[in-house]
Structure formats: structure tokens, C-alpha cells
């Protein structure tokens, strides 16, 4: 593994599988009444959020705390950023406080890459502009593998506002590395320039793609990033690209529905589909904690198994350097 996790493209197949397998081990701990491990005791993780977040911010905090790291949560709102302090000065301030890892979400694509040139600790990209969200792609792959038992050869349709989606870009890269076949489905106005160079198929026809898909990942329509009219109306978008009950009926019986959240219920996905047993949306949130535990553990120096089991007492979880 490299020192930072900035792009899903930084991960080799072996790196990605190591993260997923480590997360699988850690998921077993999360099912126990005592969820905490001493693995990152004495380490400091800073969560640096310049953009709003619910799932990613909370799950990185939970992940670091479950590994016993000290956690500093920094939100740009209410900080000296509002007085004009730069990203670099903010980063150097946190560095001076001894951050071993900095988890950053920023509206500017490339901000985590810049940050990595200024700090000594590991940088984890928690979403940068329309660029990438690698830990979301990892938790999505983990969720697919848990539900369907494999990733190799899986047919994954990623549907909707690809243009503004860092989730789509990271998923295309990671799923390609892991052997899945991705098809992006969107109106032409919501596809990025040069999408034909991405390692995936592209379609404008959702009804044609659905029966062939094992996984349908619906993307949020990111109205807050739109500075032009990308489709005639919300109703028209929903009619062509929304996943409602009728379209859900076109999927084969084992296919699953995913959404990274937050959702626009009634626009890209109907409430009935989002809440169906074949939707993995809440599982994705839960899996986010264990996958982010695995990422922090591996970046912050885990060279031995994250957990082991004492032969004398199977209820005791042993880790490198201690017992819980
Ligand atoms: N999926 C995701 O990144 O959600 P948040 O914006 O709530 O973190």
C-alpha cells in the first residue's frame, strides 16, 4: 500500500483485496458487544471537512475511535478558514498538533493531492470535488462482495449524474481493477468529457441495461453543483433515468440496488425501491465503518493481522501489541 489513499486508481488488485479482506475480519469485531480494538492507541487521526458530510465524516470518526486512535474533528464552518486561513496553513497547524493521518473532504478536486505534499502523515481522500471518493468505492465493492459473493465478472450499472460524481469515477477505477464490468448510464449531458477513455461501457438506455445487470448503483442528482440546465425537468429526468417499481421489475431476481447517499427520494430512486430488501443502502453505511477501519489500520502501519483470537479464550481479541 502507498502512504496515502487519494485515488482508487492508486490501489493494485492486491492492495484492494487486502483492504476488503481486512475489513471482513474487522466486521466480525463490529458484531460483538465490545467493538473497540487497541490497534491505533497513541495515533492521532484528524478529520478535516471543508464540505458537508453525514456518512463519511461520522464513519471515519467511528472507525478511528474503534481502533482507539485519538480523533480531532475539524469542520471548516466555525474555524479560522472563515477568516481566510488557507488550506496549507490549516494543514500545517494540524501537523503541528501531531496528526498521523488526515482525512480530508474538500470542494476542490485535487485538494488531498496538494495536502499530501505539505504533511508528513497519511492523507485519505474523503471526497474531493467531482474527482474521487475512494473509500466509498471500497465500501461499495465490499457490500457487493458480501451480498453476491464475488466481484470478478459482476455486471454493474452506475446510473445518473456521472458528470458531478466522484463516487462514479472511483467505482469505475476500483471495480475495473477487481474484474467487474461497469456500464455508465446517463443522459449525454450528464457524462464527463472523454468518458470514452474510461475503462467501462457507456449507455443512454437504462431499460436496455437493467435486465443484464447484477448491481444497479443509482447516483444522486447533484443539483448544488449544477450551473446550467442539464435536463428539461426533474420529472423528465425521473421518467428516463429514475429507478421506480416498474424498472425494478426488469432486474433479475438476485440483482441488488445501491446508492451512496444522500438520496433524492422520488427523483433518481423511488422510496419503495430504496427501502426494498434488495437495496443495500443501509448496509453500505454500516460497511463504511469497517472498510474505513481497515484503511486506517493498513495506512498507519498494520503489518500484522488486525485481529487474532486467543486460543485460551476465544472471546478475547488479540492484536499486535495488546489484548482487549
Ligand atoms: N456517500 C457520502 O459520501 O455521503 P456523505 O456526503 O453523507 O458523506
TrEMBL record:
<keyword id="KW-0665">Pyrimidine biosynthesis</keyword>
<feature type="binding site">
    <location>
        <position position="105"/>
    </location>
    <ligand>
        <name>carbamoyl phosphate</name>
    </ligand>
</feature>
<dbReference type="InterPro" id="IPR006130">
    <property type="entry name" value="Asp/Orn_carbamoylTrfase"/>
</dbReference>
<dbReference type="Pfam" id="PF02729">
    <property type="entry name" value="OTCace_N"/>
</dbReference>
<feature type="binding site">
    <location>
        <position position="133"/>
    </location>
    <ligand>
        <name>carbamoyl phosphate</name>
    </ligand>
</feature>
<feature type="binding site">
    <location>
        <position position="55"/>
    </location>
    <ligand>
        <name>carbamoyl phosphate</name>
    </ligand>
</feature>
<feature type="binding site">
    <location>
        <position position="262"/>
    </location>
    <ligand>
        <name>carbamoyl phosphate</name>
    </ligand>
</feature>
<dbReference type="InterPro" id="IPR006131">
    <property type="entry name" value="Asp_carbamoyltransf_Asp/Orn-bd"/>
</dbReference>
<feature type="binding site">
    <location>
        <position position="83"/>
    </location>
    <ligand>
        <name>L-aspartate</name>
    </ligand>
</feature>
<feature type="binding site">
    <location>
        <position position="56"/>
    </location>
    <ligand>
        <name>carbamoyl phosphate</name>
    </ligand>
</feature>
<dbReference type="InterPro" id="IPR002082">
    <property type="entry name" value="Asp_carbamoyltransf"/>
</dbReference>
<dbReference type="InterPro" id="IPR006132">
    <property type="entry name" value="Asp/Orn_carbamoyltranf_P-bd"/>
</dbReference>
<feature type="domain" description="Aspartate/ornithine carbamoyltransferase carbamoyl-P binding">
    <location>
        <begin position="3"/>
        <end position="145"/>
    </location>
</feature>
<keyword id="KW-0808">Transferase</keyword>
<comment type="subunit">
    <text>Heterododecamer (2C3:3R2) of six catalytic PyrB chains organized as two trimers (C3), and six regulatory PyrI chains organized as three dimers (R2).</text>
</comment>
<feature type="domain" description="Aspartate/ornithine carbamoyltransferase Asp/Orn-binding">
    <location>
        <begin position="152"/>
        <end position="299"/>
    </location>
</feature>
<protein>
    <recommendedName>
        <fullName>Aspartate carbamoyltransferase</fullName>
        <ecNumber>2.1.3.2</ecNumber>
    </recommendedName>
</protein>
<comment type="similarity">
    <text>Belongs to the aspartate/ornithine carbamoyltransferase superfamily. ATCase family.</text>
</comment>
<feature type="binding site">
    <location>
        <position position="136"/>
    </location>
    <ligand>
        <name>carbamoyl phosphate</name>
    </ligand>
</feature>
<comment type="function">
    <text>Catalyzes the condensation of carbamoyl phosphate and aspartate to form carbamoyl aspartate and inorganic phosphate, the committed step in the de novo pyrimidine nucleotide biosynthesis pathway.</text>
</comment>
<feature type="binding site">
    <location>
        <position position="166"/>
    </location>
    <ligand>
        <name>L-aspartate</name>
    </ligand>
</feature>
<feature type="binding site">
    <location>
        <position position="261"/>
    </location>
    <ligand>
        <name>carbamoyl phosphate</name>
    </ligand>
</feature>
<feature type="binding site">
    <location>
        <position position="220"/>
    </location>
    <ligand>
        <name>L-aspartate</name>
    </ligand>
</feature>
<dbReference type="InterPro" id="IPR036901">
    <property type="entry name" value="Asp/Orn_carbamoylTrfase_sf"/>
</dbReference>
<comment type="pathway">
    <text>Pyrimidine metabolism; UMP biosynthesis via de novo pathway; (S)-dihydroorotate from bicarbonate: step 2/3.</text>
</comment>
<dbReference type="Pfam" id="PF00185">
    <property type="entry name" value="OTCace"/>
</dbReference>
Amino acid at each position: 500500500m502507498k502512504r496515502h489513499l487519494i485515488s482508487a486508481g492508486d490501489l493494485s488488485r492486491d492492495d484492494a483485496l487486502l483492504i476488503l479482506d481486512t475489513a471482513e475480519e474487522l466486521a466480525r469485531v463490529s458484531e460483538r458487544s465490545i467493538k473497540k480494538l487497541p490497534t491505533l492507541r497513541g495515533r492521532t487521526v484528524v478529520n478535516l471537512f471543508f464540505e458537508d458530510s453525514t456518512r463519511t465524516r461520522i464513519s471515519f470518526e467511528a472507525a478511528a475511535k474503534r481502533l482507539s486512535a485519538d480523533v480531532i474533528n475539524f469542520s471548516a464552518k466555525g474555524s479560522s478558514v472563515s477568516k481566510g486561513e488557507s488550506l496549507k496553513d490549516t494543514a500545517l497547524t494540524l501537523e503541528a498538533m501531531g496528526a498521523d493521518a488526515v482525512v480530508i473532504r474538500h470542494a476542490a478536486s485535487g485538494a488531498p493531492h496538494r495536502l499530501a505534499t505539505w504533511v508528513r502523515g497519511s492523507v485519505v481522500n474523503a471526497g474531493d470535488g467531482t474527482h474521487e471518493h475512494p473509500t466509498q468505492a471500497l465500501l461499495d465493492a465490499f457490500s457487493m462482495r458480501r451480498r453476491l459473493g464475488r466481484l470478478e465478472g459482476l455486471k454493474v450499472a452506475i446510473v445518473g449524474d456521472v458528470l458531478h460524481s466522484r463516487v462514479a469515477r472511483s467505482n469505475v477505477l476500483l471495480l475495473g481493477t477487481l474484474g467487474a464490468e461497469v456500464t455508465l448510464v446517463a443522459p449525454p449531458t450528464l457524462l464527463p468529457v472523454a468518458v470514452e477513455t474510461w475503462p467501462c461501457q457507456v449507455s443512454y438506455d437504462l431499460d436496455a441495461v437493467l435486465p443484464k445487470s447484477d448491481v444497479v448503483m443509482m447516483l444522486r442528482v447533484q443539483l448544488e453543483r449544477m450551473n446550467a440546465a442539464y435536463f428539461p425537468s426533474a420529472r423528465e429526468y425521473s421518467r428516463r433515468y429514475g429507478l421506480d417499481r416498474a424498472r425494478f421489475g426488469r432486474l433479475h431476481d438476485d440483482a441488488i440496488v445501491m446508492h451512496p447517499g444522500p438520496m433524492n427520494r422520488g427523483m433518481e430512486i423511488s422510496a419503495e425501491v430504496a427501502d426494498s430488501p434488495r437495496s443495500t443502502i443501509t448496509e453500505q453505511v454500516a460497511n463504511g465503518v469497517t472498510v474505513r477501519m481497515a484503511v486506517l489500520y493498513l495506512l498507519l502501519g498494520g503489518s500484522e493481522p488486525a485481529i487474532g483470537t486467543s486460543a485460551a479464550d476465544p472471546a478475547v481479541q488479540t492484536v499486535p501489541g495488546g489484548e482487549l
